[in-house]
Amino acid sequence: MTDATNNPVLPAAEAGRPIRKIPENRPGSAFKRAENRAAYLFLMPWLAGIVLITALPMLASLYLSFTNYAVIGLPTWIGFDNYVRLFTADRRFVTSIWVTLKYVGFSVPLVLVFSLAVAAFLNRGLRGLAIYRSLFYVPSLIGASVGIGLLWKEVFGERGVINDILGWFGIAGRGWINNPTFALPSVITLNVWTFGASMVIFLAALRQIPDSYYEAASIDGANSWQRFRRITLPLITPVIFFNTVLLLINSFQSFTQAFVVSGGRGGPVDSTLLYSLYLYQQAFQQLQMGYASAMAWILLLAIGIATALMFWSSRFWVFYGDR
Question: What is the pLDDT of residues 171-225, one digit of tens each?
Fold first, then answer.
């Protein structure tokens, strides 16, 4: 029923009755408890993985880092002896730190620059963009595999493709991976070759920049470099920061390339002895699991400090839309 203004009106028989309210979902209600049980049930696989696969092994490795544990037998508590030995009596540990810092210091900027350059090139409206994007992304999927490491070892070998190409120009080749001067650059080159993941992220960011920004800058007389420097770079600094953090963390943990190229030895003359490779040697070749656990926690601390410094520095060069 409605009144003269078409507003609903209750019948006379219903007007005197109290209005029944729908009960709210109180915290202690049966419905709320059932919802909580369902949520915990779906979270159980994730919680079990966090506890059994991540938390408990981390706590176990923290305990083992203060013990002398040779896998065979029970661990013996020795306190901070492993950490003292690392910094005072292990020259290869210091060498692995220096090699890893050089690897990270060169590979991260090179991957960033190369992936951004390729993304900017692909963003120019090429036909078949999806095909090019997929082709450039493939190395990121297979670059860390053992097969690619073996292929890279052959490419940079004394009779590899690189020396064959140099021979066309009358340049005598060499065993690149057997030379202490060029072994680490060869591994860095392999890491740079796997730039596809960063490139795809950069390309997605570039395609989000409105064309009107570039059109306005062109009208004002800005050239290509000025548009890139004044428009593109500031707008993609959050993505640069994101890629830098990911590359930094992955580079500190790099293992497969150096292991395959050097045959697991980190040679020649420890020139490719990355930190993770030396940790592997101590854990699974020397069976010094307690010593390796101490190395693992130092690596975790180093990555945490590097990541924290990146987040601290981001306030000075990363620009977001709401600032």
Answer: 766 777 888 888 898 889 888 888 888 988 998 899 888 889 888 998 888 888 8
In angstroms and rounded to an integer, the radius of gyration of the C-alpha atoms of the chain is 29
Query: pTM above 0.90?
Result: no
- The rounded distance, in Å, linking the Cα atoms of 215 and 227 is 10
The structure tokens listed for 321 are 């839309």
> For the CA atoms of 97, 99, 100, 104, what is the dihedral angle to 10 degrees?
140
- Of all residues in the chain, the percent with pLDDT exceeding 90 is 43
Q: Which residue has tokens 């000025």? A: 226
User: For 28-80, what is each residue's pLDDT tens digit?
Assistant: 578 788 888 888 899 999 999 999 999 999 999 999 999 999 888 899 999 99
At 247-297, the pLDDT tens digits run 999 999 999 888 888 888 888 889 999 999 999 999 999 999 999 999 999
Cα-based distances in Å from 271 to 92, 95, 176, 276: 11, 9, 12, 14
Residue 288: C-alpha distances to residues 60, 156, 291 (Å):
15, 33, 5
Q: What's the CA gap between 206 and 228, in Å, rounded? A: 11
Alpha-carbon gap, residue 115 to 236, rounded angstroms: 13
CB 304 within 8 A of CB 253: no
Question: Strands (DSSP E) along the chain, which ranges?
Answer: 67-68, 76-77
The amino acid that residue 96 corresponds to is S
Residue linked to tokens 């101590």: 282
Count how many Cα atoms sit within 13 Å of the Cα of residue 292 in the half-sphere of its side chain: 18
> How far out from the chain centre does Cα 133 lie?
20
Identity at 150, one-letter amino acid code: L
CA 14 to chain centre: 66
| Beta strand 67-68 pairing with 76-77 | antiparallel
Phi, psi dihedrals of residue 8, rounded to the nearest 5°: -65, 140
User: Helix H segments across 220-288?
Assistant: 224-227, 233-235, 237-252, 256-261, 275-280
